[in-house]
Amino acid sequence: MEKLILIKLGGSVISDVKRANTPRIKLIDRLVKEIKQGGKNAKVVVGHGSGSFGHIPAHEYELQKGIRNKKSLVGASVTQEIAGRLHAIVLKSMVNNGVNALSFRPSAGGVASEGKLVEWNIDPLQKALERGFIPLTMGDVVIDLKKGICVIPTEEALEYLAARLKPHKVIIGGDIDGVFTANPMIYKDAKLITKIDSSNIGEAMKGAGASLKVDVTGGMASKLSYLYCISKRYKTTCEIVNATVPGRLRDAMLDKKVIGTMIEA
Questions:
Q1: Could you give the angle at which helices 70-96 and 25-38 cross, rounded to 10 degrees?
Q2: What is the pTM of this model?
Q3: Which of 21, 10, 51 is nearest to 215 (CA)?
Q4: Full residue range of the structural domain in which residue 189 is found
Q5: In this predicted structure, what is the pLDDT of residue 131?
């Protein structure tokens, strides 16, 4: 049976977070090629963040608070449209580089409650996998039973998929080497935590902290929390690697030893 790998391409990797709505086309193309190389003997599902596309309007309209007024409805539509632009760019890169991708956004058939996906018909996604496609998903604006709407992070979509697809590995491709003992952008003595399990998850969560970027879905601490839960609940290895370094994502897909943080709860 072919192994299954779930991958997230971080929004801060595939977009320039300092410039609104600015994709990193060359980097996206390179990562798509690595996914193609690393997935030759595996089934793959790819998700991506919104970076300087979706996070900025989501923050501006305070979508994390749900529907509060008519402005919230405007914000949800605007955010989804802008986030969709980056999704289309990633999909186009996959097609142009010979990757047979099909799009499966959580907003199509997905329902959340307090920011947690509780329904999402993934039967078409599973059938696409069986037929040799690489499903492409993303963090998205979805209907929320309690708040009206919410923004779910890509990790939430991947956790939902992990519960049902039981992947061999979940890989997060970010813009730093992994989880550090402190924020490496501020503290020069911060050290990379190469492995996280039940013995050091508390310490690792303290070091992860919050993101310095505009990110309505939380920073590294939120990502680590999702990955630890995925690893513990579904007996899956999770790995955080620096996708801006050529070859790292591909090698992680091939189970080669790379610089990064391995999570085995």
A1: 60
A2: 0.94
A3: 51
A4: 3-263
A5: 97
